[in-house]
Amino acid sequence: MDYAEVRSTLIPKNESLDEKLNLFRSDRDEWNSRVKKYLIERNDINRQVKELISEVQKQKLVRDEANSSVKELKIIRAEHSEKLKALRAELKEKKPDEKEKFESKKEQKRSERQISTDIERLDNKYQRGAFQDNEKKFERSMKKLYQELKAVKAIKMLNKFAGLEADIRAASSLQENSHKTVEKAVGTAQEAHDLMIELSEEVDRLREIANTAQEGVIRSKREADSLHRKYIVSLRSIHSIQDLLKAMNTQERESEEDGNEKLEINDLMTRLMAGDTLSTEELMALQRN
């Protein structure tokens, strides 16, 4: 075997593989760095998604509770509205049509007793003949007093419904407050729902980014694994070449030793044939060979 020729083939091959080995290792490490980067990005986004989903669930709970309250509050509002409607109908039915007629006379200070006393006093004067010469004046005065008395009685009758009007005002206030409460609950439910939609859209957006990062992880890992396999193959090839070169060196060295030993045996044989005396060690060496 021509060891020199084999070496001339193996040594350049070993150097070439060594260059590729360094290149594969460098590229592999770069792709592994990308894997780590994509993993960090993906995990961070998934953490955000988890937090957003938790917030969506909270807002859903708020919305559902608010919607439940809306249903209950609408029932209460309807009850208040029905009560107000019934009170107004009752007032309309019981209150006399003359209300407007006597409304302007509410400012009068005289009581029914005072007016009745004046009527009685005027009538006594008439009975004693105070108006014999002017009966028309008596009739005008008496008519005016009776009109005043009628107005006072009408006002008194209207005052009987003051309590009913107070009930109506209270019922109207309750109905208005219950309506505002319903609107507030509706607003709370709508705000929670709108926030849910907004958060859900953000979750979808982040999931797309996370999926892209996961694709980067898969792609980078595939490239890193491929380069690592090439690195291992190149490393094994280099080791094989080095082992082969080492074996060749050993073989050459053993061949040289064998050649020297053969020359020594031939010399001993020549001396023995010439009649020289050999030592015990030299004789044992001849026997071994």
List keywords for this structure.
6 helices, mainly alpha, rod-shaped, 289 residues, Helix Hairpins
Q: Number of helical segments?
A: 6
What is the β-strand count? 0
Task: Return the structural class.
Answer: mainly alpha
Q: Helical percent range? A: over 70%
Sheet with most strands: none
Cα separation of the termini: 26 Å
Low-confidence stretches: 97-107
Q: What letter string, H or E per element, gives the SSE order? A: HHHHHH
| CATH class designation of the domain at 3-74 and 197-256 | Mainly Alpha
Query: Can you give the mean pLDDT?
Result: 77
The rough form would be described as: rod-shaped
> In CATH terms, what is the fold-level topology of the domain at 3-74 and 197-256?
Helix Hairpins
- Beta-strand level of the residues, as a percent range? under 5%
Please give the radius of gyration in angstroms: 61 Å
**Second rung of CATH, namely the architecture of the domain at 3-74 and 197-256:** Orthogonal Bundle
